[in-house]
Design a protein that fits this description.
Blueprint (H helix, E strand, L loop, with lengths): L5 E4 L5 E5 L4 E4 L4 E3 L1 H7 L4 H8 L3 H9 L7 H11 L7 E3 L4
Antiparallel strand pairs: 1-2, 2-3, 4-5
Helix pairs in contact: 2-3
Length: 98
């Protein structure tokens, strides 16, 4: 039986995965980056305004704003997109591994 991978969160959005079976640490930088901050700023939204108009917790908006690699649900992405007047795909940027 293989042991599951364990996520270790470290500063600056770097995510390291430790696999106890191989005893190796694998660095995986997010390939999907959220553009919520950029789009919101372009449209004149502050974190507070986006939180109110999307009916979402300020802490959630703050986390997404500060960490563009933060994992969000499709429901959250949809709420943000509707509030900002864009499609969900406009809030996502894909960058392949280097």
């Amino acid at each position: 039986m293989l042991a599951p991978e364990i996520a270790i969160i470290v500063p600056h959005s770097h995510r390291y995965w430790y696999n106890p079976a191989t005893r190796k640490i694998d660095e995986r930088l997010g390939m999907i980056r959220l553009r919520v901050r950029e789009v919101a700023t372009e449209k004149g939204f502050s974190m507070s305004r986006l939180s109110r108009e999307a009916n979402m917790a300020y802490k959630t908006i703050q986390t997404i704003w500060r960490d563009p690699y933060h994992e969000v649900t499709t429901t959250t992405l949809d709420k943000l997109a509707k509030t900002l007047g864009v499609t969900p795909s406009e809030l996502i940027e894909y960058s392949p591994d280097k």
